[in-house]
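Open question from group meeting: does this chain pack into something compact, or does most of it stay loose? Before anyone orders reagents, we agreed to write out a predicted structure and look at it together. Recording both the input and the output here so the notebook holds the full record.
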Amino acid sequence: MSAVVKQTRYTAEEYLSLERSAAIKSEFHDGQIHAMTGASREHNLITINIAGELRRQLKNRPCEAYVNDMRVKASKARSYHYPNIAVVCGKPEFEDTQLDTLLNPTLLIEVLSPSTEAYDRGAKFAHYRKIASLREYLLVTQDQPGIERYLRQGEVWIMSESLGLDASVSLESIDCQLSLREVYDKVCEDGENQVG
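Structure tokens returned:
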């Protein structure tokens, strides 16, 4: 996340109108538009590796996965975000006929960057938790093989952690498994704990 684009307050409708014709992506919260920053090589590799694994496991199932460009609306938080990966199982629901704003994600995944980590862990996760359909949230590190998984159980979110290339994470909400060795392919070499 970078600085607020303007100090002007916008309605959600104004944001969507501007966003749909903009050259760069921006997120929205409570009247403010925030321009998004670019991603590193590692960030892109991790995202595509996860998407590839999910595509393979979700094939022939009533689930869809979207990478980077599917906007997600957190209505109760008055916000719109672009998660790195969004998965919906069952019939996807969209805000309007543009089909570019998902309302009912089952799983959201963010690959952490130094510039967005605090936001992804804090305010963004607080917005996401207000989405009734959301069952799981993953935070994936770039600097070492590690995934934090947050699973909704009623009104409580339970955190578990998977560390190292030999670990895996079970995605209960979509009945998939992610091997960290696959997630960090071409990012971490065998025997390395650090990205490099």
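Observations to bring back to the group:
The chain is about 20% helix and 30% strand.
The mean pLDDT is 92.
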